[in-house]
Amino acid sequence: MSEKRAFVHIGLPKTGTTAIQKSLAHSREILRKKNVVYPGDGDAHGLVCARYHPLGMESPYIVKVGDQTSLLQADALLKEALESDRDCILSSEYFHNFGASGIRALSDRFAENGFETHVVCYLRHPVDAAISSGQQAIKVGSRSLTEIIQNPRYIPIRQNLEPIISELGLENVHVRDYVQAAKNGLLKDFLITIGREDLVTIIEPIYANESITMDGAILADMHREHRIEHRTAIFPKHLIFEIGGDRFDLPENTKEKVMLDGKGDLDWVRTVLKMDLQTGRTNTSTYRDFPSREGVAQLFNLMRKRS
User: Fold this and answer.
1) What is each CA distance from 212 to 188, 237, 260, in whole angstroms?
2) Residue 199 and residue 195: Cα distance in Å, rounded?
3) Global pTM?
């Protein structure tokens, strides 16, 4: 058994990956003193996709950043990790679809340098994942609320995780339920999962994501539609994060569609991983088609304060 361990954190998307990355990056020097390397000087390691994602320079992350030096940057990150005499951590939600070939190539590279590779993955119930994905799309304005309702999205679990398990073995793939982990503290859960309980009280958790409420989402959707149609903003978009009220949700029929689509994944997780994924949602839907009076009043008050 190798003395050094390489932990490859692959997300999945919408499972608090960014918060873990920011926390580790913020405490990079503390980790180094405690014999853990978090390579690079940024928060995440998506650039490694240039070397090990099946699509290489055409992979989603590399296309997104549009940097032709990505391969050189990936090699620099890997060099720092591989030349270390300590455990190392690589983290990116863009690692989740490396597939068998990508994860095998990365694992072999680590093995050549004396590391044993372990994958850490957080799973979220498909309905919760679809709601979180929809909320993110609304926040950044990439999709309309109508599009999200008609075509909800979540990252398939089995399709992405099974090839990795087949290559590394279930004993080297550490799968955690996101909802349960979040209850106990996501960073704390991650550090315990990689066997570094000693770091729990040393590494400061950084919280990364701003949520929006149901009213905030509807108003953000109205903001998007108005900009597309009239090329002007009806209010400063950042105000959506200050609108209170019920949490963002999807209609019941949309959630039922996700449940039907995700049944195979849930059955696979239950059978192979011996887990029943929890949901953080209640049985009462908070979805609405129109903003509440309270939400609109809050927006007007915020705009008045800033005028």
Assistant:
1) 25, 12, 26
2) 9
3) 0.93
Q: Which residue reads 């989603």 in tokens?
A: 60
Spatial separation of the C-alpha atoms in residues 240 and 233, rounded to whole Å: 13
Helices and strands per DSSP (H, E), number in the chain: 14, 5
Positive/negative CA dihedral, 252, 258, 260, 265: negative
On whether the CB atoms of residues 87 and 33 are closer than 8 A, the answer is: no
3-class secondary-structure state, position 9: strand
Classify 170 in phi/psi space as left (phi over 0), alpha (psi -120 to 50) or beta. Answer: alpha
Rounded to an integer, what distance in angstroms lies between the CA atom of residue 100 and that of residue 134?
29
How far is it, in rounded angstroms, from Cα 127 to Cα 132? 9
pLDDT in tens, 275-306: 999 888 777 788 999 999 999 999 999 999 88
List the structure tokens of 106. Answer: 């990365």
| Helical pair 214-230 and 293-306, crossing angle rounded to 10 deg | 60
Give the amino acid at 203.
I
DSSP tag of 247: B
The type of residue at 228 is I
Q: What are the tens digits of pLDDT across the range 79-138?
A: 999 999 999 999 999 999 999 999 999 999 999 999 999 999 999 999 999 999 999 999
